[in-house]
Amino acid sequence: MVQHKFLGLMCWELEEYLSLPLLAFLAASAIIATLSYTAFSDPTPYSSLFWGSGTVLFILALVTGAFFARSYAGSIGKGEAKLMLSYPIKRSQLFLAKFAALFTAVFAIYIPVYYLHFYLDGLDAFDPMIFLALFGLLLELMLACSVAVGISMMTKSEITSILATVLLLFGLDSALGSRNLLSAQGRIFYLLQYFGEQLHGTPPFLGEPAVTANDTLLAVLVPIAVFAALIGGSFVYFTRYLEVD
User: What is the pTM of this model?
Assistant: First the structure.
């Protein structure tokens, strides 16, 4: 019974916040993101995995922030959350159903499109380096959605949450640069550079500085820690303290 109610909430979330026009926009944004990246001169076969990730990460964070902020802050600001909670629905179920529905939808569209693009670009379909780049995208998705949800809990305003999420994510990435282990593209660089050397004996990006296992681990753990803290904190706030007007 609980499982059916949770699945019903997920379906409601998708119908309410990811209807056909928005779903088409989500798919189009994924295709555009993966196809439009700047030409590069680096002759290594993995250059596209790094240089091609920049546009993908930018649009992914933008779309993720907008959808999650619209769902959480929008439902609170417009009174939809109050209406839903007037039914025999637990706050925890509503929070988790929103998250599961949107996260699954964005993941299910962006990851396969990104994977197919680089397969068609000439890389081996089972090359571990592709899956490392996909893992980097997953980390950015986790970070973007957690930031959007956290800001939504604080502002309860759809527009403010979207703008604050986008400005925070891109402001941080712009300040850090594409080689910093704490930036979105920097995480993919560290993953490819470190594991490329472990797998092939030489780093894929010659002329770039070598990276250590500790730095690579930090590049992975930081977004996971931020995700756990923000989603965990938002969940507790939504279920115990949030006043739904």
Answer: 0.89
